[in-house]
From TrEMBL:
<comment type="similarity">
    <text>Belongs to the complex I subunit 1 family.</text>
</comment>
<comment type="function">
    <text>NDH-1 shuttles electrons from NADH, via FMN and iron-sulfur (Fe-S) centers, to quinones in the respiratory chain. The immediate electron acceptor for the enzyme in this species is believed to be ubiquinone. Couples the redox reaction to proton translocation (for every two electrons transferred, four hydrogen ions are translocated across the cytoplasmic membrane), and thus conserves the redox energy in a proton gradient. This subunit may bind ubiquinone.</text>
</comment>
<feature type="transmembrane region" description="Helical">
    <location>
        <begin position="120"/>
        <end position="142"/>
    </location>
</feature>
<feature type="transmembrane region" description="Helical">
    <location>
        <begin position="6"/>
        <end position="30"/>
    </location>
</feature>
<feature type="transmembrane region" description="Helical">
    <location>
        <begin position="331"/>
        <end position="359"/>
    </location>
</feature>
<keyword id="KW-0472">Membrane</keyword>
<dbReference type="GO" id="GO:0048038">
    <property type="term" value="F:quinone binding"/>
</dbReference>
<keyword id="KW-0812">Transmembrane</keyword>
<dbReference type="GO" id="GO:0005886">
    <property type="term" value="C:plasma membrane"/>
</dbReference>
<feature type="transmembrane region" description="Helical">
    <location>
        <begin position="194"/>
        <end position="215"/>
    </location>
</feature>
<keyword id="KW-1003">Cell membrane</keyword>
<dbReference type="InterPro" id="IPR001694">
    <property type="entry name" value="NADH_UbQ_OxRdtase_su1/FPO"/>
</dbReference>
<feature type="transmembrane region" description="Helical">
    <location>
        <begin position="296"/>
        <end position="319"/>
    </location>
</feature>
<comment type="subunit">
    <text>NDH-1 is composed of 14 different subunits. Subunits NuoA, H, J, K, L, M, N constitute the membrane sector of the complex.</text>
</comment>
<dbReference type="InterPro" id="IPR018086">
    <property type="entry name" value="NADH_UbQ_OxRdtase_su1_CS"/>
</dbReference>
<feature type="transmembrane region" description="Helical">
    <location>
        <begin position="252"/>
        <end position="276"/>
    </location>
</feature>
<keyword id="KW-1278">Translocase</keyword>
């Protein structure tokens, strides 16, 4: 058996995670159209390939081959840098997400995770927060008043909802005692106690986080930075070719990442009910080696984690084609006067439950 160094394994996992993130973002554009067509009782994409499955490839070719355009008076360097920053930060945030438990190769055992840092939650939160700078830079560098208004909206919206999102995560931190996404996931895998998933212990915190996730990803009903009816196209009004594609793809990558984070923080991540009982049954009754049984459990857990992620992605798209857009004053009022106080109340309730031993 070839010994695989840990650094080599991490490089492979990081490459695969980036590739999967881009693939999912690409086909999210197809899923968006299919779901919209289903909800509106019409035919979706059906021209490019069977059932329209080649439509994302056609869109990619169109984006790459369209004419480059720079508006008059634009800052060309920042005009290009804005969408690049938005895409880079979206991809970086997926590196610390644990997509599976340990898997064994000979004498080596590795986690299906790009990098493990004991501040993984802060990593995701910080990197995603940097994404708004890509929006702000692109909107300002376009030399367009509608783009600038969209960028200002994105910045103020980001500040408002990140506070509530951060406060909702404090309650999870109080329960878990760690910022490591891997440790938070493992703590939800206590044998025989699958009901220890944080959604059971933090239902209010999850609802707050979910609402803030819509604002963080600029999705309807909180897509005020784009808001076609008011701002033409918002911060990317002046963009064309692949620069526009980077903005659009980064939004879908962010949806994928935030769906993965919610699955990890609140729905057990790669854990599933009776996984340890299944592993022990395979090892004791079916004659499997313990390492082989654990590898199967890891594979099943990874598949189920992606099932949870896809369920959240579908929910994001369902909401887009169901609810109307908020007015800007309603958006800000919801963040400052409702979500932030609710998040503070959730922290106080969680602290009381921990103090009296209801939550351990």
């Amino acid at each position: 058996m070839i010994e695989l160094p840990a650094l080599g394994w991490q490089s492979i996992v990081i490459f695969v995670v980036f590739a999967v993130s881009l693939l999912i973002a690409t086909y999210c554009t197809y899923a968006e159209r299919v779901i919209a067509a289903f909800l509106q009782d019409r035919v979706g994409p059906d021209r490019a390939g069977p059932y329209g499955l080649a439509q994302p490839l056609a869109d990619a070719v169109k984006m790459f081959t369209k004419e480059e355009f720079f508006p008059g008076g634009a800052n060309k360097a920042l005009f290009v840098f804005g969408p690049c920053l938005a895409m880079i930060t979206a991809l970086m945030s997926s590196a610390v997400i644990p997509f599976g438990n340990n898997i064994s190769f000979g004498n080596n055992a590795f986690f299906l995770q790009g990098i493990e840092v004991n501040i993984g939650m802060l990593w995701v939160f910080g990197v995603v927060s940097l994404g708004v700078y890509g929006v702000m830079i692109g909107g300002w560098a376009s030399n367009n008043k509608f783009s600038l208004l969209g960028a200002i909206r994105a910045a103020s919206q980001n500040i408002s909802y990140e506070l509530a999102m951060g406060l909702s995560l404090i309650a999870v931190l109080m329960i878990s005692g760690t910022l490591s996404l891997r440790e938070i996931t493992i703590q939800q895998s206590i044998p025989g106690e699958w009901a220890m998933w944080n959604i059971v212990r933090q239902p209010l915190g999850f609802i707050i986080f979910l609402v803030c996730a819509f604002a963080e990803t600029n999705r309807t009903p909180f897509d005020l930075p784009e808001c076609e009816t008011e701002l033409v196209g918002g911060y990317h009004t002046e963009y064309s070719s692949m620069k526009l594609g980077l903005y659009l793809f980064s939004e879908y990558v962010n949806i994928f990442v935030v769906s993965a984070v919610m699955s990890v923080l609140y729905f057990g991540g790669f854990n599933f009910p009776f996984q340890y009982e299944l592993r022990d049954w395979l090892a004791s009754s079916q004659g499997w080696e313990l390492a082989s049984a654990q590898n199967l459990i890891t594979a099943l857990g990874t598949v189920l984690l992606f099932g949870k992620i896809f369920a959240f992605i579908f929910f994001f798209m369902w909401i887009r084609w169901t609810l109307p857009r908020f007015r800007y004053d309603q958006l800000m009022r919801l963040g400052w006067t409702i979500l932030i106080p609710l998040a503070v109340v959730n922290i106080l309730i969680t602290g009381g439950l921990i103090t009296f031993g209801v939550i351990k």
